[in-house]
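This protein record is not my work; I was only asked to verify it. Take the sequence as given and treat only the tokens as open to question. I have pasted the whole thing underneath without changing anything:
***
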Amino acid sequence: AAAADFPADLELRQAILGADRLSEKYLKEENEEDHTSQSKPHTLTKEEREALSSSIVVVSDLETWQKLNQHANENQIPVVVKFTASWCKPCKRIAPKFEEVFKNRKGQILFAEVDFDKNPALRKRCRVKILPTFQAYRLETKVDEFAGCKEESLDGMVEALVTYQKMLTKAYSLERRLGAKAYSAIEEKRWAGKPWAKKASKLPPKISRSSSSSSTCRECTAVLPTGIEARTLFVKDNNTNQIVAVCENSAGFNFTAPRSATRVTPYAFYNEETYGMW
């Protein structure tokens, strides 16, 4: 590739070139179909849950990766994973920062580290080509990513996840408090005859899906009807009944639906005087 195709940062360039050399070593392996079977989820023991939460998880195989995501899903906690290698100088330079962020956010986010050389199946699944690469996952769906030794990008990624977690907690709190008067189009019959039903039916946003969406990446846009405002907005996955997207102070927003979602539903929470969310 031409020099112009590479970033100016020398260490990042070295990491890219190193990854390219490694890719030659694993060329045959990368072109093969990934027939690795995923083990069925099992009940995590107390010791396993504590181990996944109390330290940066060293992901040595796909089974560990599955356990990490299972624990994250069960507790609605995001995951930040760092792809690294022993020969990668930028990886070593940002290692202390990654440890610092883990200590500051332990309990709010799960942190993991993957060795690029020792986990070819996982790096292929996560499409990692440059080191270091940091990825953020929510409900096993990648929601953020950057490559390189960029401490400010790591701080930004983590802060965005923490802010989202606060909104998610608020959304579930409101749902529990107002859920008896939750409106969605699929439950329209339950609302028949209610004095506020006609107004509530106009509250949920319209959801459209990108034409480029695939089965593993469902880019969606949620837009509120003209003239409608809401403070906290969310949509749910019909399969799991989990809130998969939430936003504050917006008339609409973009989000990625999880791989498990065959359909996502916007909700309106409404009482006789005001509505708090959709």
Remarks:
- The longest strand covers residues 141-147.
- The chain is about 35% helix and 25% strand.
- Residues 66 and 219 are 24 Å apart (CA to CA).
- Residues 1-8, 11-38 have pLDDT under 50 and may be disordered.
